[in-house]
Amino acid sequence: MLKILFISSFIIIIIIGCQNEIVTSPFDYDRDTPTWLKSKIDSISNDKDYFGTKVFRHEWHSGFVYYISIPISSCAYCEVYNQNGDKIHFTDDTMFQDYIDNRKNEILIWEWKE
Q1: Considering the entire predicted model, what is its pTM?
Q2: Beta bridge partners of 110
Q3: Please, are residues 77 and 96 in contact by the beta-carbon 8 Å criterion?
Q4: Residue 20's pLDDT band (boundaries 50, 70, 90)?
Q5: Rounded Cα gap, residues 60 and 72, in angstroms
């Protein structure tokens, strides 16, 4: 009887352990990119002044934030948007530093290659 209880417990632990694995699907541009950002990327891709631009997604304060890196711009991090497409204005150095220090899970969404 003790043997059956031990084997049953072992099997249950293995089954529960296997169910707790987190499965994440890879980033899919069509599925995971907001409509407003797709429109912005379409606009950027038709303007030669944006050659070399990259669009990144980060997590910051429990939401997605989108950073558009424009190589010819003299302003780093001036094109940062929240997940609704509202531009984030860093009002002070503390807010900006918080963004730099606490953003995570960077994903390259799009880049202009030619």
Answers
A1: 0.74
A2: 55
A3: yes
A4: very low
A5: 26
